[in-house]
UniProtKB/TrEMBL annotation:
Protein name: T9SS type A sorting domain-containing protein
Signal peptide bounds: 1-32
The UniProt record lists the keyword Signal: yes
Gene3D superfamilies on file: Galactose-binding lectin
Domain named Secretion system C-terminal sorting: residues: 201-269
Superkingdom as given in the UniProt entry: Bacteria
Organism in which the protein naturally occurs: Seonamhaeicola marinus
């Protein structure tokens, strides 16, 4: 086999692999997504607690995946873990039919297990799940997997109360947890090809500055996220451009969620 034929075959394999990965990735992350609370508008929620001290404070580490101005803060008191929790109640209940998972950003002082409960205030708990973060002073994504419920019946899937128990195993009094960007995901696909065609990401390949132009009502000014081919979130930004010079060479995806909850995804190549 000639060298030219070998190079051609390798190119075809790489192209096919990139296509399959991108197709799978878009289907995976293009699920319906709703931001519950980002702690930027205090008129949209109540931040309470079962014991402990609930606060909304200035972001102590505005970098990485979370550069927002305000975040939630919870200080654990020295008492039983199951009597200590941070509680967020939103003004408008959400109908979360086919609930898949709940995620949020967290600065975790320990790698102890966390517990999340979704309720309709005054009615009681409906969905419960656990997650375990990594002890880190940087922001990280934590996901509570609710897929074991097999989808929640539409008649009982209305929630407005989100309760988080931090460090349920060790319960270290005085431990401080920061959290932000509470998001719920469902299994209903919402991306539309018409909107996707108006959403532009360029240039590709890109070396330094990447530009994002939505041209779609409801997407302009929305927060954008960049994922690598493994589905790992590597960058969050607002605006119409972002410097990607420090990203490794490879295939990436820009995901933007509009004000109506619909998500549009475009891929680009980093040189």
């Amino acid at each position: 086999m000639s060298k030219k034929t070998t190079q051609l075959n390798l190119y075809l394999i790489q192209t096919k692999t990139a296509f399959l990965v991108s197709a799978f990735f878009i289907i995976t992350i293009a699920k319906a997504q709703t931001t519950v609370v980002d702690f930027e508008n205090p008129t949209e929620y109540q931040h309470l607690a079962w014991n402990g001290t609930p606060e909304v404070v200035t972001n102590p580490n505005p970098s990485g995946i979370n550069t927002s101005a305000n975040v939630g803060k919870y200080t654990i008191p020295a008492s039983s873990a199951w009597s200590n929790a941070s509680v967020v109640i939103i003004n408008t209940p959400l109908n979360l039919k086919d609930l898949s998972n709940l995620e949020f950003s967290v600065i975790a002082p320990s790698g102890s297990q966390m517990y999340s409960k979704l309720e309709l205030d005054g009615v009681g708990g409906v969905a419960e799940a656990y997650a375990t973060p990594t002890a880190d002073s940087d922001w990280q994504k934590v996901t509570f997997n609710f897929s074991h419920l097999g989808g929640v019946d539409v008649n009982t899937a209305t929630y407005n109360k989100f309760t988080f128990f931090f460090n349920v195993n060790d319960n270290v009094g005085g431990e401080v947890w920061y959290f932000d960007d509470i998001i719920v995901n469902s299994n209903s696909l919402s991306t539309k090809s018409e909107k996707s065609s108006k959403f532009k990401v360029y240039p590709s390949p890109v070396t330094n500055q990447l530009f994002v132009k939505s041209g779609v009502k409801g997407l302009a000014g929305s927060k954008a996220e960049i994922y690598n081919v493994t589905g790992k979130l590597v960058r969050v930004f607002n605006g119409e451009s972002v410097n990607v010079s420090n990203l490794n060479t490879g295939l990436y995806f820009v995901s933007v969620t509009g004000s109506n909850g619909e998500k549009v995804v475009k891929k680009f190549i980093k040189n």
